[in-house]
Design brief:
mainly alpha, 4 helices
Length: 110
């Protein structure tokens, strides 16, 4: 990982983890069960169920991204950190932060 300051990377990763944790908390609030004795109309209930499904999908994606970022932190001191597993070239920092679960550069991921 030459050319990249590990302290800066850790700071960026930790900031993103904090944002994701807050996002996950809000998704968890949105995905709570919809009480059948809540007196909303039939259409409103269907809309609430649909919104809950969308929030659940967002929750899964946020948890997957959080897992990838936490994995990055555990591997930051390895020699392979920041290198594509297929071609061995450097992965840009922005890509690592955007798609932390991917061990490939943009070219190799296609």
């Amino acid at each position: 990982m030459s050319g990249i300051n590990k302290d800066e990377v850790l700071l960026l990763i930790n900031k993103k983890i904090d944002r994701l944790k807050r996002k996950i908390e809000s998704y968890q609030e949105l995905t709570k069960p919809i009480s059948p004795d809540n007196s909303i109309g039939r259409i409103s209930r269907m809309d609430a169920i649909n919104n809950k499904s969308v929030a659940e999908a967002g929750l899964r994606e946020a948890q997957k991204e959080l897992s990838g970022l936490e994995y990055m932190i555990t591997n930051i001191d390895t020699q392979e950190f920041g290198l594509c597993k297929k071609c061995g070239k450097k992965i840009p920092l922005q890509r690592m932060l955007l798609v932390p679960q991917s061990p490939y550069c943009v070219n190799c991921s296609n």
